[in-house]
Write a structure and sequence with these properties.
single chain; 3-stranded parallel β-sheet; 3 strands; about 80 residues; alpha/beta
Length: about 80
């Protein structure tokens, strides 16, 4: 499981499961210092590990760089 910033490459490599984010290269978990955003991405990665059943599936949560508001992450739903 991993985050990917280049969907086309991920489709060719075919890892077992991936979370595709439309973030700039070098920022696979989000903006520097934005802990709520980074924890949200991390939570989504863990949920994808739990939920993806089809090998090679790529999940896109739809986050937009610097256009989303993130709050504290609720971990109890994992």
């Amino acid at each position: 499981m991993g985050t990917t910033l280049a969907r086309e490459v991920t489709e060719r490599v075919k890892p077992p499961r991936s979370l595709h984010l439309r973030f700039p290269f070098g920022r696979p978990l989000g903006e520097p210092g934005n802990v709520d955003q980074q924890m949200t991405v991390l939570r989504d990665c863990l949920m994808a590990v739990r939920d993806i059943e089809v090998p090679g599936e790529i999940v896109e949560p739809g986050y937009r760089w610097k256009r989303e508001e993130y709050g504290p992450v609720e971990w109890s739903n994992l």
